[in-house]
Amino acid sequence: MALDPTLKAEIEEFLLHEAELLDERRFEEWIELFAEDARYEAPMRVTRARDAGPDIVEESKIFSDNRETLYIRVQRLGTEFAWAEDPPSRTRHFITNIRVQPTDKENEFRVRCNLLVYRNRGDAPSYDLLSADRQDILRRVDGGWKIAYRRIVLDQSTVGSHNLSIFL
Amino acid sequence: MQVLKGRRQPSPEIRSMLEAMVDMVPQGRVPVRIFNDPEVFELEQERVFGRCWVFLAHESEIPSPGDYLLRYIANNSIIVVRHEEGQVRAHLNMCRHRGNQVCKAEMGNASHFRCSYHGWTYKNTGELIGVPYWNEIYHKRLDKSQWGLVPVRVESYQGLIFGNLDPEAPSLEEYLGGFQWYLDFYLRPGPNGTEVYGTPDKWVADTDWKICAENFAGDGYHTPVAHAFGFELGYFPSSARTHFEGVAVHIPGKGHAIGLGRTPGMPPFFGFPAEVVEAMHQTLTPEQVQVFSQVRTAVCTVFPNLSILLQPFSRIPGQPGVRFVTMRLWHPIGPGRIQMWSWCIVPRDAPQWYKDESYLAYTLAFGAAGMFEQDDFENWTNLTRQVKSTLARDLVFPYEIGLDLEPDPTFPRPGVAVPPYVHETNFRNLWTTWARYMLRD
Questions:
Q1: Which chain B residues are closer than 8 Å to A72 by Cβ?
Q2: ipTM of this model?
Q3: Has this prediction a pTM greater than 0.90?
């Protein structure tokens, strides 16, 4: 079944809007994009020999959040004591290679993209680049979209950042 | 085989700083310079990491024959492998012919390792078994028994495998010097000990391993400020007012140290499931039960760079929650730079729901994206940048907290136990021990 091109355009628009909320640190608005039953996960990568099975360890996660703990992370950033983000990181989320596929559920779509996040802190000219395969399930709700599931698979087995106090 | 010879000598400047530390640290002064300095880094690669028992792996990471991991001691890549008879061995990950890395995966299962350069092949015991053209060009004259992978000493305690580059070093048992009594709280929560949950978090940070090791040697002082958000969101079963209560214990001359934080009125073994509490009564001595049942936070450093934290935590503030245990290795990869390995370990005999919940608590609090971890690394990386400045390097830090405190003579076990939880007695022992290692030729 060919996807309606306007649907893909709508989903792209949604992802770009979401990235803008993150880069502008509008986290209270960002969290509203997640469904009540949403999961937000980032499994770990490892370095294995080519024929020794998958390099993703499903039981080990850098993020393993539900909507409630994700909101606690947002609340934390709203306190005066979230030192890791004060002064805040400058982030830029680049989203490309968007692919949309239907699922068994009529109102849910599997949306995969390539994610590149630039992160810079303070006066240092140096920066972190985090590249990932991001896999979402987006759900159409009341004419809008909600993220029902997000999985971020980083392209590093050793994360090249001193912490992950940002969202991906 | 002699692996390490103390080749590097300190400059007169660094030597006099280290000599001064022996008297100065017990009186509450530590030179700023030790925390980010290229010469200190190079010297400690040999004199600290070349002589101490350095953590390599948890036995549950390599449960089956042939299972291997790549880990490090100083800048040496080490293959840790369980060989066919079940024993754990460690070897330098370097082909003896021209030095290529013989193992390139960080984990896996193999009966042998074959170098991809000229094809020398080693059994997972380290023995050289294959040399291409051994007949034709070596004319069978190369003595293969002399050219196995360089072995590294390994010993273990309650599932923790340590390696040592120094053939002359004392045994692990002697090295731990009674600290085992405290490690049991983390490692003997039941007859079958602990296991790691999944694979460790790994990341890099521009900080010095010593900052991190000191923090986990019992820095209860930073918690109410560095992790103030936790109090703000209602995460802590202790309030900032009672936070300093408890005891700090160190092993003199060994560097190992633990902080045991207590919360008045906390139920015994709060946050552990009934099955684990029952199992702990079987494995721990009555003295250990008496001490540990009252402990909220147990945070320790095994000298030099292995730390363990046990903490009650509920993902949603105010709920009963669970305990999680994180074990972390602050592996130095340059002056003021580390690679982190961070594991979550769980009681092997605990019910699966508890292991899962314990891991989720660890991930939210202390994984690479953990809410508490984030703020520590923010502080530690900024600190590390400051201390290398030309003005900073000639200064000293005050390590005065608790200089006038007396040990508790009634405390049941090894080491020097000084109440309360928050003071710097452990750190003075840590840096005196470090200075003594650094001065030894």
A1: 233, 315-317, 364, 371
A2: 0.96
A3: yes
